[in-house]
Q: What sequence folds into this?
């Protein structure tokens, strides 16, 4: 195996909870905090912590707004986040491919 | 994305250092601690800690022996470890494939 393959994996994304969040966000233009929590089956606290980590990395934005007089938080990937996720998935693909090769 | 995809990822293997160790071991019948350390570019302490975690999960064995009167530690995957790694890589593949699909 070429050993730089795992070193290429973005530590911010390479956590099961955050992988899930990034994958859901990558598949949609925006999603509410509530819908994201339901989709991922996470607790409020756990999701909030992961979102903050991703926000601090510049990978997503959280917009606090209202819908029918109720608070609504909208989550969106930034261009940086979308690019980082694409790079991460490509690194995973190379890792998977490397495990299919016979050793040199 | 089907959300159970990230939940299927084995936490013991899903750490960059241990992913690397498992991939190297999966590609060889056995490898010495020294060769593994050189291949992965890890410190003794870091590699020892990860090997212990994998050993406690039943994924590898460490055999302390000698070669030309010098101590030699041989690392090998167990059948359980090989099977767990295969399952892990398959879960990664499904995750990668899911990111290629358009949302429903």
A:
């Amino acid at each position: 195996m070429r050993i730089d393959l795992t070193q290429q994996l973005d530590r911010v994304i390479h956590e099961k909870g955050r992988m899930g969040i990034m994958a859901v966000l990558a598949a949609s233009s925006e999603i509410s905090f509530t819908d994201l929590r339901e989709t991922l089956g996470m607790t409020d606290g756990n999701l909030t912590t992961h979102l903050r980590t991703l926000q601090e990395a510049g990978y997503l934005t959280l917009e606090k707004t209202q819908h029918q007089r109720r608070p609504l938080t909208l989550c969106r990937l930034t261009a940086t986040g979308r690019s980082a996720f694409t790079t991460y998935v490509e690194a995973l693909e190379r890792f998977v491919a490397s495990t299919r090769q016979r050793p040199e």
User: Anything to note?
Assistant: Chain B touches chain A through 31 residues (CB under 8 Å). Residues 79-100 of chain B form the longest helix (22 residues). The longest strand of chain B covers residues 60-67.
